[in-house]
What does this fold into?
Amino acid sequence: MARSSSGVFVAALTAAALAGVGFLAFQAEAAPDKPRAAQASASGKAEDKGKGKDGAQGDGGPGDGSRKDEGGEKAAPPVPAGSGTGQRVVYALGQKRVWLVGADGKATHSFEVAPSAVNPQPGPYKVTSRDATGTGSDGKAIEHVVRFHKDAAGVVFGFSAAVDGSLPDPASGKKTGAVRESPADGRAMWDFAVNGTKVVVVA
It folds into this structure.
């Protein structure tokens, strides 16, 4: 009986040991799977996050910057040196650009213009007359006409905007001195350049 009980006990211990080894072996095999799954999950999240970030950079990063560059106003060149002081309209012939300069010397608005065939001589002038509407020398309906000079040949120089947004044709052969603006810029000029306002033309 003692031997039989001892044999049963040893067998039970052996079975328990084998079961324990089997369980440990199972855990050893299963354990690497868990980190691999976690790593795959983390990698998946990182990959998704990376894609999202790349997508943001590709679609919204530089793209947003580009849209801002295209959609935002470009900084206007500085007010030309030697254009005087105080409140004035500065018209640069070479740049085909106008600045509306406040009393503090800072430009409140600047825009490109389209001159006609004849340009005024560089120098200081003053706004001499204004008309809310009229007809241009090209036959176009114009608005916000601000005149500042009439030369010896009878050419009248002034800023205006065509109602239809059209521009003068310098090659038309007509000796006219209209300086055409966009309708929005024409409104800004009209509000700024009242009679007597200084107009400085530079080369």
Observations:
- The mean pLDDT is 75.
- Residues 79 and 108 are 11 Å apart (CA to CA).
